[in-house]
Amino acid sequence: MLNLYKVLGVARNADGAEIKVAFRKLAKVHHPDLHAGDKCAEQRFQMINCAYDILKKPEARAAYDATCARKRAQARRQVKCAAFAMAASFLLTVTSGLMVAGWMRIEGII
Predict the structure, then answer these.
(1) What is the residue-level pLDDT of the chain in tens, covering all 110 positions?
(2) Are 10 and 16 contacting, i.e. CB atoms less than 8 angstroms apart?
(3) Buried b / exposed e across 31-61, counting CB within 10 Å, b at 16+?
(4) C-alpha–C-alpha distance, residues 71 and 94, integer Å
(5) Other CB atoms closer than 10 Å to residue 23's CB: what's the count?
(6) Where are the domains of the chain?
(7) What is the spatial distance between Cα 6 and Cα 4, in angstroms, rounded to a whole number?
(8) CA-closest candidate to residue 42, choices 52, 55, 33, 50
(9) How many CB atoms lie within 10 A of CB 20?
(10) DSSP H or E segment with residue 72
């Protein structure tokens, strides 16, 4: 997911005035009329407009922040799940290795 705050270059706790100033500054720099035929500048301008359209409306901004928070929580859960799986796998490997070593010692192989 694209971080709209980074697109505009503002902090998450920026107020509406800061967002508006950042948008206007970036819009002047990346406006397609200043970069005729440059598709990259045009796409950047569209991203800036999209970010501003969402962050300027309090309801849309709250919904965006909630979605980002949900995705961060989901990513943390996935990391915890992966860490648990790795720990369980390690424990199983060590335990089975110890069991094999014990069996070999009992059988007199070692």
Answers:
(1) 789 999 999 999 999 999 999 999 999 888 888 878 888 888 999 999 999 999 999 999 999 999 999 999 999 999 999 999 999 999 999 999 899 888 888 887 76
(2) no
(3) eeeeeeeeeebeebbebbeebbeebeeeeeb
(4) 35
(5) 21
(6) 1-56
(7) 5
(8) 33
(9) 16
(10) helix 58-107
CATH class of 1-56: mainly alpha
Evaluate whether 55 touches 18 at the Cβ level (below 8 Å).
Answer: no
Size (the chain), residues: 110
C-beta atoms surrounding 14 within 10 Å? 16
Instruction: Determine if the pTM surpasses 0.85.
Output: no
Q: Phi-psi region for residue 11, left (φ > 0), alpha (ψ -120 to 50) or beta? A: beta
How many helices (H) and strands (E) the chain has is answered by: 4, 0
Q: Would you state the structure tokens that stand for residue 75, as one six-digit string?
A: 């990513």
Residue type present at position 64: Y
